[in-house]
Amino acid sequence: MFRMLPYDAEVLLSFLARYNEALWPLQPLALALGAAALLLAHRRLAGAWSGRLVALVLALGWAWVGWGFFLERFARFDFLAPLYGWAFLAEAALLAAVAALARPRVEGSSAFAGVGLALAGFALVVLPLAGPLAGMFGAPPGAGGWASAPLVGLMPGPTALFTLGLLLRLQGRLALPLALLPLLWGLVAGYHGWALGLWHGLVVAALSLVAAVLLAWRQLGEARGRG
Amino acid sequence: MLTRRGLLGGLGAAGALGATGLAPRGLAARAAQAAPLTRPFPAYGGPVPAIGMGSWITFNVGDDPGLRAQRVEVLRTFFERGGRVIDSSPMYGTSEEVIGHCLAQLDRREDAFAATKVWTWSEDEGPEQMANSRALWGLERFELMQIHNLLEWQGHLETLLADKEAGRIGTIGITTSHGSRHEAFEEIMASQPIDAVQFTYNILDREAERRLLPLAAERGLAVVINRPFRRKQLFRLFQQHPLPEWAAEIDCANWAQFFLKFIVSHPAVTVAIPATSQVAHMEENMGALTGRLPDAALRRRMVDYVESL
Fold it and tell me: How confident is the model at residue B95 (pLDDT cuts 50, 70, 90)?
């Protein structure tokens, strides 16, 4: 099978490390914004504006990844990066529009919402730590080290998974269409993981599929409930 | 000029073509070669070494100083072992920029036979893209400019003919890879004023033997071969097996040389362009530039051997 990626894993991890280095100290801000969105999506802490703020934080992350990651930087390496960049900007616009116009509300205490919180927390905390920690314990390379750690809002994989998790926390029919581009990116990340031997991408793909199935299941249940 | 009839005869004779063209039947097949193997590149006006270098993936390393330094060494080995033809494309990310960096570091711009491609849907963007490529390589002229995967080929061909007239490029080529669009490719080969073609050919993907290689010979076109190792797949398939004992008869010390000698022993092939990011692999590849080449019978035996594994 023809591999469409014009770079290898070593080059990608080097790029991510240099990208992180160039962005410092944006990383603590990105983590703080992600943590804030996670708290706002928590049922006990949610207020009337929580859904809108969560959507806005997500929109900010997608906009940054579209512009700052793909269009400004990664386009040098991959001829498909502009396409990805515009897709991320489109998702950012959709999330911003939902925040402004649709009044999304935080979900109650369903099992779907619980899984969503877990997936978002995994993307925010575990994904960046997994590669370096695995490396420290002698695991073969496959997710890079601290320098190339993938962060929500700065890199596409964790941003897509974080978004899918939080969409499981939001009520309403808009969650499913908003999940389309994150799911597509999850699949692209899976292809990257397979082609480059980076298990991080495979994990993002698998969990993205889980989130998408749960979103569809929830929506189906709601439709039946209304019927 | 090599003709289709001559080619068919040549296949029965030796693959060992020197700068002088076809070798007499039976003489060259097992003859030792002291000098690196070169092939005529008709419209260029001189011979080129039969092993070149591709740059898909391998030279797309961006600004990383460590990775750039490694690529400098890869290219140093390439030149030291007699290589000249370097092929790239604007599609390959930062590859052209990194090649330009390496050529400047080694001060070998004059020694390179620089080949790249125009790759854009827009005819109007072609000149700007090619000017950018010249800047990235640090060159005023490419010896070979190819239309990548036949993209907007009619428009770009007009530009390239004008560029050739103006001396910005030496020769004009078209490319395809992994066996796609062979019919359209053939049509252009047969009817358009081009000088070179690039397509896929290796010991497992031999579709080109049927029409493209004979047609290139008939038209006097230089032939650049991409994917000589099927993007490493040939090694994954065969390197756990030993080389046959008779590989020594054609001076093959490793599988890379076995695969490359199969390709460049075809009389219509001008240059194969394997890509690598490792000095050791470059050493192996460039070893195919010397020693004996298989004749038609041995080429058949090479195919039979790998297909039996």
Answer: very high
Q: Is A3 part of the contact surface with chain B (CB cutoff 8 Å)?
A: yes
Fold classification of B38-308 (topology level):
TIM Barrel (3.20.20)
Q: Which residue of A has its CA nearest to B65?
A: A14
Contact B62 A11 (CB under 8 A): yes
CB pairs under 8 A between A and B: 44
Quick one: three-class SS letters along B32-76? CCCCCCEEEEHHHCEEEECECECCCCCCCCCCCHHHHHHHHHHHH
Say if residues B266 and B295 touch (Cβ distance below 8 Å). no
Interface of B with A (CB under 8 A): 56-57, 60-64, 66-67, 91-95, 177-178, 231, 277
Tokens 């969650």 sit at which residue? A175
ipTM (interface pTM): 0.89
The answer to whether the CB atoms of A7 and B57 lie below 8 A apart is yes
Provide the residue type at A99 as one letter.
Answer: A
* Residue A2: inside a domain: no
Cross-strand bridge partners of residue B175: B198
**CB-based contacts of B124: which residues, under 8 Å, 6+ apart?**
none
Report the candidate in B150, B214, B218, B216 with the shortest Cα–Cα distance to residue B181: B150
- Nearest-CA residue of chain A relative to B64? A14
* Alpha-carbon distance B270 to nearest alpha carbon in chain A (angstroms): 24
What are the residue ranges spanned by the domains of chain B? Answer: 38-308
A91 CB contacts (<8 Å, ≥6 apart)?
A62, A66, A163, A178, A181, A182
* Option in B61, B91, B231 nearest A11 (CB): B61
Domain that holds residue A66: 9-218
Percentage, residues of chain A above pLDDT 70: 89
